[in-house]
Design goal:
By secondary structure, this protein is mainly alpha-helical. It contains 7 helices and no strands. It folds into 2 domains: 59 residues, no CATH class; 98 residues, Winged helix-like DNA-binding domain superfamily/Winged helix DNA-binding domain (Arc Repressor Mutant, subunit A, Orthogonal Bundle), CATH 1.10.10. Helix 2 crosses helix 3, helix 5 packs across helix 7 and helix 6 packs across helix 7. 25% of the residues are buried.
């Protein structure tokens, strides 16, 4: 389960393995702090995600804040529903991995982990506007990838391949 979480943030299986191993090391070091009011898996997941956030922050040399005034960010509900498409988990992961690191990280935290933009901004040391922009940009890029993929698939069907 933790490998699945790490795969959304990492580029390679080696990075996933390293993140999960380090996450479980932190779990073992802090097991005395675990409170049974939360499920153990939830607590472990939080530790792994926090580790991935820390690693992301370390890897960024410079992440410029984008002023919300400079951007046209639309907070409309996305009509993109990946469940409507027949894509394998591997194909979806590959699409996510095509996103720039910052955009992928913010998108994962917001859309999958459920963080709010203010929480993401605080954790990644960016503005909330920058967080919103990254989510908007990820949605746009993913929609383009899906559209391109659908076109390619229908062209292949037209060629009877």
């Amino acid at each position: 389960m933790m490998s699945g979480v790490a795969m959304r943030y990492c580029h390679s299986e080696d990075e996933v393995l390293q993140a999960v191993n380090y996450g479980f090391l932190k779990v073992l070091q802090n097991i005395s702090k675990y409170r049974d009011e939360f499920a153990l898996a939830t607590w472990i997941r939080r530790i792994v995600v926090n580790h991935l956030i820390d690693e992301y922050r370390k890897s960024i040399k410079e992440l410029k804040n984008v002023s919300i005034d400079e951007l046209e960010v639309h907070e409309e509900v996305s009509t993109l529903n990946l469940a409507e498409y027949n894509y394998s988990e591997k194909e979806l992961r590959a699409m996510l991995n095509e996103l720039p690191d910052a955009t992928r990280t913010v998108f994962n935290l917001y859309s999958i982990e459920g963080y709010k933009h203010t929480e993401i901004a605080e954790r990644l040391q960016i503005s909330a506007g920058t967080s919103k922009w990254h989510v908007s940009d990820a949605r746009k890029r993913l929609a383009e990838m899906l559209s391109k993929s659908e076109k390619n698939e229908s062209e292949l069907k037209g060629l009877n391949i």
